[in-house]
Amino acid sequence: MLTKEFLGLVAAKAELSKKETEQLLTTMNAIIRENLIDGKSVQMQGLGALEIKERQARMIVHPRTGERSVVPSKNQLVFRPAGTIKDEFKKL
Description:
Blueprint: H1 3-14, H2 18-37, E1 42-44, E2 48-55, E3 58-61, E4 68-71, E5 74-81, H3 83-90
Helix pairs in contact: 1-2
C-alpha cells in the first residue's frame, strides 16, 4: 500500500481531511523516531512494539575461501508483533 492510499483510508475512517491526517502521521513518525533514537521502545496497542537492539559482533567464514572475518556489532530495528495479531496471522 502506498502512502497516499494509506492516508486516504485513515482520513476516511477518522473523518479528517487528508491534510490533517498527513500532519498527524508526520507527527507520529517524528515522535516514534525520537523515542527509538533515545533508546526507548514504542508500543502500539493491538499492533506490536518497535525497539532498537544491539546485534553482537560475530565471526563469519567466507564459504569459498574459508577466510574468517569479524562483522562488527550494530544496532538493528526490531518489530515484535502483539499476541492478538500473531494469532490472526496463524489463521491465514
